[in-house]
Task: structure prediction
Amino acid sequence: MERFQQNDPYLVRKEFMLAAVDMARAGRSLAMGGTFPEVYQRYAIKDFPFYANHTHNDWAEFAADGGIPFLLLLLIPFALRFPRRFEIHGDWD
Result:
């Protein structure tokens, strides 16, 4: 019940995401692939009394586990899915 009384509902998730961003910035992510739970403790901002198995933010975890190149690779399908959405329509003559 204490957790529901907290002012910041994203308290734990925010720290997990910031740690994932730090992991991606470290540049060692390509060698770590898929090991967020094991590597998280090195980048933890705050010590929580429970096991952190995910960042609860898929994009941050993709960057932490596979590095920025992996994150960009995963963004390709999204970029290809909506190419016309960003085109300028209209007659400018």
In short: DSSP finds five helices and no strands in the chain.
